[in-house]
Amino acid sequence: MAMKSSSARKERQVTLADIPRVGPGTPAGEWLRKYWLALSTAEELYDIPKAVKVLGEELVLFRDLHGRLGLVGLHCPHRGTSLEYGDVEENGIRCPYHGWLFDVSGQCLEQPAEPKDSVFCQKVKHLSYPVQELGGLIFAYLGPQPAPPLPRYSCLVDRGGMRQIEPVRTNDYNWFNFFENSADPCHICILHRHTGYGEQSWGDQFFSYTDMPDFDFVETDYGFKVVMTKPGPSAGTEFVDTMSLALPCIIQVGDTEFVHAKVDAVKLMTEGSHCDHVLFLTPNDDEHFTIFTVNYYTGSDPNFFEKLKALRATEVPKEAVKEYDRRKYMPFKGNVRQEDIMSQSTQGLLGEREERLATSDKGVIMFRRIIRDAIAAAQKGQRPKGVLPREKSAAVVFFDSFTGVRKAAPR
Amino acid sequence: MAMKSSSARKERQVTLADIPRVGPGTPAGEWLRKYWLALSTAEELYDIPKAVKVLGEELVLFRDLHGRLGLVGLHCPHRGTSLEYGDVEENGIRCPYHGWLFDVSGQCLEQPAEPKDSVFCQKVKHLSYPVQELGGLIFAYLGPQPAPPLPRYSCLVDRGGMRQIEPVRTNDYNWFNFFENSADPCHICILHRHTGYGEQSWGDQFFSYTDMPDFDFVETDYGFKVVMTKPGPSAGTEFVDTMSLALPCIIQVGDTEFVHAKVDAVKLMTEGSHCDHVLFLTPNDDEHFTIFTVNYYTGSDPNFFEKLKALRATEVPKEAVKEYDRRKYMPFKGNVRQEDIMSQSTQGLLGEREERLATSDKGVIMFRRIIRDAIAAAQKGQRPKGVLPREKSAAVVFFDSFTGVRKAAPR
Amino acid sequence: MAMKSSSARKERQVTLADIPRVGPGTPAGEWLRKYWLALSTAEELYDIPKAVKVLGEELVLFRDLHGRLGLVGLHCPHRGTSLEYGDVEENGIRCPYHGWLFDVSGQCLEQPAEPKDSVFCQKVKHLSYPVQELGGLIFAYLGPQPAPPLPRYSCLVDRGGMRQIEPVRTNDYNWFNFFENSADPCHICILHRHTGYGEQSWGDQFFSYTDMPDFDFVETDYGFKVVMTKPGPSAGTEFVDTMSLALPCIIQVGDTEFVHAKVDAVKLMTEGSHCDHVLFLTPNDDEHFTIFTVNYYTGSDPNFFEKLKALRATEVPKEAVKEYDRRKYMPFKGNVRQEDIMSQSTQGLLGEREERLATSDKGVIMFRRIIRDAIAAAQKGQRPKGVLPREKSAAVVFFDSFTGVRKAAPR
Predict the structure, then answer these.
(1) Quick one: which of A155, A262, B123, C36 is 20 to 30 A from A30 by CA?
(2) Structural contact between residues A61 and A28, judged by C-beta atoms closer than 8 angstroms
(3) A211 phi and psi, to 5 degrees?
(4) Which member of A46, A48, A111 has the closest CB to residue C358?
(5) Lowest mean pLDDT among A56-70, A344-358, B178-192, C392-406
(6) Which of A318, A351, A394, A410 lies closest to A151 in space, CA to CA?
(7) Rg (CA), chain C
(8) Which stretches within C191-300 are classed as H helix?
(9) d(CA B204, CA B191)
(10) In this structure, what DSSP letter does residue C151 have?
(11) C-beta of residue B331 within 8 angstroms of C-beta of residue B317
(12) Is the pTM value of this prediction over 0.90?
């Protein structure tokens, strides 16, 4: 009876308030533990231990001198000292307090103060999670075994283009405010109108405040897709821009060249975009998340990333801040990332804040339903959307973003 | 039965511990919501939204381009983004995230991402409170409708004198420690003896540490009055100084010229004081309150405020702070406001701290009783002291402070 | 029945989780209240009140102008203002708010605002604890009367040597992590191997990482002793180093000259150490403790303390901190005190953290048992270890540390 009651509790209806909470034992926390999550860029993992917080768990990431990646509990199982201050050695990480050495699997290998014939260290296995590197990002899997395959995300698997990984960013608000913002394309025309989206050279000013595109929302096998269209440059054509949201927490934006590069619109339009801009989110806890940003370029310009960087450097907030203005997030207008931080960090937690949703929240409503279904699937022991079956482990995972001109769909 | 039980709970005996707590649903919070409270000076409300916290509620104050004052909930009712970052427009305030526009009544006027024929915005009414400006201060009423009249406080209603509003001060302790401090006149002779009260030129050194005045306490229609007397300059006369405490949270000090200006005592004594020094307190939450200070002068010196300012500038703490002295509130002696902050901020919360009250706390005891009666009246749905009946809305509200020499009262 | 139940609760089994919690009413808090605890050095108690937190209680320490020491509750019993801002006078401390004067026993002597014939002050007795000065340290007793004698600790009672009291240190983690660290001698060979323990000139490199001494642990009348031995310089001798842990919270290290001074090993070895290094710990609350450090030297070098200070000044962390290393406690290697802070402050609270104890934790296990027994004894109303019986109040209390060469014990 107790079992049944416990099971009933566990499989209760998933609510909006469940989505933002990621700690161990929470519905969304258990769901997120079904996926590989990005932890660090390979570049930012140095020759010292790196403390990381993932889904509310305190861990330490390191690479032993053989190059093997390890992710183990932050506190030494012996007497609790932080392994963040440990020595990285040939075969693992050594606690500074009593010298216990752990390999990347968490197995204790040495205990220098124990008698020489002691076998106690063989019995000590520290908390450890599998880690894999792919295309410059380091991923971990915090869920129950067996781990699913780490998807071979197209932007991380070399296919002849150029890849750039941006410096990691961490924000101090709930990860889902950021994620669902991408299921809400009309905010681009409104919040970001100051960034020049409406004034750029792309076609008919696609993201105009006064003439917004049509928005359509599609559930996909990997998650969710936003499709934005406007009449094209010639009869029977339409401009298309898509954005993909892949479970559990990946965003692929397809229109980098149009939005940011602002170069030769006609040529770009006929070719489509050559640059995927992909954001891997990792919730640290309910109040912090980290963004790992990958740009993958397959066009012909060998200096594309330099140009992109130079263009972004010009996107600073344009506002003159008045002398009496002491507001925390000022200035923000004129920089997409600061506009997002201002609007998302002040929202509060989904399920706690009051809301009045409207027609234009259609994408958000649909996306939340997809997330709740995935959480419910995880609760039932089913494979949630975005978790690869083992037989597909070799496939490259594409999110079918498209940006360009196509033959108009019938309306 | 549930109703009766709920009602019984609501009308339980008001305790001392109820007084300092101001949040929604608390006895004192509901009582304070029966009054207009000061929010800002008109001067410090600029052309940008101003976030304010009042009685634990997060709100945003603004003035639309027609000059209308609005006070609405801080978070947009749509998806929660802070309206502190909104654009102030001709007809209201516009949320930065999706552009919803609200007028000063909270009515939603525009939703730019909704279909052009949508009437949804007509159904969205954001939290909003009435606001009024009077004599350079902006007041709001956070209670149930109908709102009582905003009292025409004499210091704010022009009657031929000069008015000065000081820069706003916010302190980080409970508001009631500050308020009841004024019902306790003997602290002036003790805590403030370092400020020169006992050494000034006024008459016989009215607030002497070793020869304190007589204190009397009177309940009034507006609240409470402290009457301090000493034998006067000639037989059959007495010096009188009064201080008024008006509900819910106003203090009027009548002796500004004597205490601070320290000019020609004989002349002043025969004429009485010409300057009201009035403090409007607003509890932000249980740990913070804001002080709005109004000086109203009706004397003949056209440079009175300049002189007062110059004199106050000299009232800095006179203590030499020793090199090993790391105490937080040092130095304080020699400046009334810093002396008050030191002594009140370290008291802790009324009802939580232990106390041993003495004869000299007679005023405090009586004043707390008056406040508890007012809270109880509010609980019973009666009109608490200090709330004006509608038929008196046109009257100027005087607090009958008097400072000067009068015929001695019989003893 | 209620009594019995309450008593049963009070005398429940003492657990590891009880040890670190020191507030009033906790098992360890009540146990610690059976002892005199150090509060301040005499040198750092100036002519102003000193706020101190001891076992979770907020107090203020002062010395009246007659030189009498007082320790009273931080908040004035009248209306709660902090006596930290009081005036120290001939006969006590005077509250700044209403001038109540308290003597060192907490007796109220004056209430200047009360009627001249009032006797109310006689009825007001503020919280007060006994205080005593011994050898440059100020101790207080916070427990029930009668207070036991303040032990005449040998390092504080002049017997012809030189005494030095170091500047006081306060750390922000639980006191017991620091205390039990001394019951764990193998950490010296491991954590502190970077400080040069293994490379110094003392005999056969006593604290070698690769050839650790033998450790033995002895329960004593004052608490606990760690005995560390290695084969001596000639047949039939052994090097001995001992460390004493006296209840409730005193550590005596005997090897100062060997470890720190690194001078003429042979001469020192034959003579034994002449310097006691004694640490008196005082828990401020569960997250902070203060260390009072006494060095007592009985050797022949008149410049010993100057040399010791000069040597310590060289013990700075030797690590080159990499440019990308942002870890909080970096650098630490090369300075015993910073190595200790790094390892102990990251452990978390005993009883909350997970642990896997090993053979080398034998001392820690035994020491925790001694502490739990002492707490249990205090619960039962018995005299816990380290509390002196009154008849021994005149005796000098030695902790029998010994460091040097002795005839080898039989093995």
Answers:
(1) A155
(2) no
(3) -145, 80
(4) A111
(5) C392-406
(6) A394
(7) 23
(8) 256, 265-271
(9) 19
(10) P
(11) yes
(12) yes
Q: Which of A114, B324, B371, B330 is nearest to C359 (CA)?
A: A114
Instruction: Locate A265 and state its tokens.
Output: 């619109």
Residue type, B230: K
Q: Which two tokens stand for residue B108?
A: 């939603």
Which residues 185-224 of A are in CB contact (within 8 Å) with B? 186-187, 189-191, 209, 212
**DSSP assignment letter at B157:** S
Task: DSSP letter for A125, please.
Answer: B
Residue C280 near residue C292, CB atoms below 8 Å: yes
- Residue with tokens 């005997």, as numbered in its chain: C254
| B353 contacts on C by Cβ (under 8 Å) | 75, 79-80
- Cα–Cα separations (whole angstroms), residue B352 to A188, B14, B15, B184, B349: 51, 15, 11, 20, 5
Question: Phi, psi at residue C305, to the nearest 5°?
Answer: -65, -35
DSSP string of A75-130, one letter each residue: B-TTT--BGGGPEEETTEEE-TTT--EE-TTSBEEE-TTS-TT--HHHH-B--EE-
CB within 8 A of B249, min separation 6: which ones?
A: B32, B35, B37, B175, B179, B280, B281, B282, B283
**Strand C288-297 relative to strand C162-165, pairing:** antiparallel
Query: Could you tell me whether strands B152-153 and B396-397 are parallel, antiparallel, or unpaired per DSSP bridges?
Result: parallel
B84: chain A residues, CB-CB within 8 Å: 327, 346
Interfacial B residues in 136-165 facing C (CB < 8 Å): none
DSSP state of C374: H
Chain B residue nearest residue A181, CA to CA: B97
Residue owning tokens 């026993």: C105
**CA C242/CA C182 separation, integer angstroms:** 11
For B208-223, give one letter per residue: b (16+ CB within 10 A) or e: ebeebbebebeebebb
- The pLDDT tens digits of the residues spanning B188-226 come to 999 998 876 555 555 447 888 989 999 999 999 999 999
In which band, very low, low, confident or very high, does the pLDDT at B139 lie, cut at 50, 70 and 90?
very high
How far apart are alpha carbons C205 and C85 in whole angstroms?
A: 53
The one-letter amino acid at C228: M
User: What's B201's DSSP letter?
Assistant: S
- Mapped onto helix, strand or coil, the DSSP state of residue A156 is helix
- Alpha helices by DSSP H, listed for C279-360, are 304-314, 336-345
Tell me the ipTM for this assembly. 0.93
Cα–Cα distance for residue pair B332/B316, rounded to 1 Å: 8
Work out the angle at residue B295's Cα, subtended by the Cα atoms of residues B290 and B298, and round it to the nearest 5 degrees: 165
Residue C190 is predicted with a pLDDT of 94
Tokens read off for B322:
């020793």
Helix and strand element counts for chain C (H, E): 10, 22
Contact A241, A256 (CB under 8 A): no
Number of Cβ within a 10 Å radius of residue B388: 19
Cis previous bond, A331, omega within 30 = yes
Decide: helix, strand or coil at residue B235.
coil
Question: Chain C interface, mutation test: which of B215, B356, B361, most C Cβ atoms within 10 Å?
Answer: B356
Sequence letter at residue C60 = V
3-state class (DSSP) for residue B356 = coil
Residue with tokens 């937190």: C53
Q: What is the mean pLDDT of residues A198-219?
A: 79
Q: B177: part of which helix (H) or strand (E)? A: helix B175-181
Question: What distance in Å separates the CA atoms of residue A135 and residue A41, rounded to the nearest whole number?
Answer: 9
Contacts of A187 in chain B (CB under 8 A): 97-98
Calpha distance B138→C362 (Å, rounded)? 70
What 3-state class would DSSP assign to A313?
A: helix
The pLDDT tens digits of the residues spanning C188-242 come to 999 998 876 555 555 447 888 989 999 999 999 999 999 999 888 788 988 888 9
Helix, strand, or coil (residue C58): strand
Chain C: residue nearest A78 by CA?
C356
User: How big is the CA angle at B24 (ends B22 and B26), to the nearest 5 degrees?
Assistant: 60
